[in-house]
């Protein structure tokens, strides 16, 4: 059996699809936690408004280590499904010959990018579960500072900033054009459509800001600005009407979190 054939056989398993779907509620919980922290920052409290901050919050709760391992397992399951889509194309569980069909390379790249995101957050969850507690923004700033010491490192930072901004822009487009409805196995009702539009647009806008902030930080040689999602939230909070902007962002992240719960049932696999 070929490698693609083996992957196709795995995606045809109902148990595998069930396990992959279980990752969506995990993603939803993380988005709700990020939304909560953005709202707190908007109202004057301190915190880290990104996935690392959400995981740190889980780590401080009772049974935190168990929760973190559950988060890691769910995200790894989603990552494995995205890697399968990287090999076979989108929605391989719907096709009896997914291993033989032609799939656009762009779709495979999108799946691979999502797999990397899920794996990165899963690794962070494992780090917290085994006792690591360093802020994600500190890690990012430290790495950025080292990269800014050379022209090659600056090039890497600019390129990653462009990629992040492109991903964010795609999410905005996907939400505004309602293309996310193509990922569902039923016609989108009013509630799911509203959650999907608000969630994709808001998250995409913040992610785009994070990518642009990394580029600006590289130009200014200021690693403190290149701290990813958390840095973007801080920058938006300092803008005119920053409190309102952050509350809108929090609402959008919460909407995407609720949309993720719907994906657990209605996502095409």
From TrEMBL:
Coiled coil: none annotated. Signal peptide: none annotated. Keywords: Membrane, Transmembrane, Transmembrane helix. This is DUF1206 domain-containing protein. The chain crosses the membrane at residues 21-43, 63-81, 111-132, 152-172, 192-212, 244-264. The keyword Amino-acid biosynthesis does not apply. InterPro entries: DUF1206. Residues 22-87, 111-177, 199-266 form the DUF1206 domain.
């Amino acid at each position: 059996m070929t490698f693609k054939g083996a992957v196709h056989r795995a995606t045809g398993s109902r148990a595998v699809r069930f396990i992959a779907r279980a990752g969506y509620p995990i993603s939803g919980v993380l988005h709700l936690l990020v939304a909560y922290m953005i709202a707190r920052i908007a109202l004057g409290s301190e915190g880290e408004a990104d996935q690392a901050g959400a995981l740190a919050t889980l780590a401080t709760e009772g049974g935190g280590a168990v929760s973190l391992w559950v988060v890691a397992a769910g995200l790894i399951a989603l990552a494995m499904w995205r890697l399968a889509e990287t090999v076979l194309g989108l929605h391989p569980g719907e096709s009896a010959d997914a291993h033989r069909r032609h799939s656009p390379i762009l779709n495979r790249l999108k799946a691979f990018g999502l797999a990397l995101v899920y794996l990165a957050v899963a690794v962070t969850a494992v780090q917290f579960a085994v006792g690591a507690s360093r802020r994600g923004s500190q890690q990012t700033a430290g790495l950025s500072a080292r990269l800014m010491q050379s022209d090659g490192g600056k090039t890497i930072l600019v390129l990653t900033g462009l990629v992040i901004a492109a991903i964010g822009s795609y999410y905005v487009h996907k939400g505004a054009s309602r293309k996310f409805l193509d990922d569902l196995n039923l016609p989108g009702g009013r509630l799911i459509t509203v959650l999907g539009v608000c969630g994709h647009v808001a998250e995409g806008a913040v992610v785009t800001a994070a990518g642009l902030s990394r580029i600006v930080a590289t130009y200014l040689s200021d690693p403190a600005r290149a701290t990813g999602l958390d840095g973007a939230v801080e920058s938006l909070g300092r803008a005119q009407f920053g409190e309102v902007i952050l509350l809108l962002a929090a609402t959008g992240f919460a909407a995407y979190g609720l949309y993720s719960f719907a994906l657990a049932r209605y996502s095409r696999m």
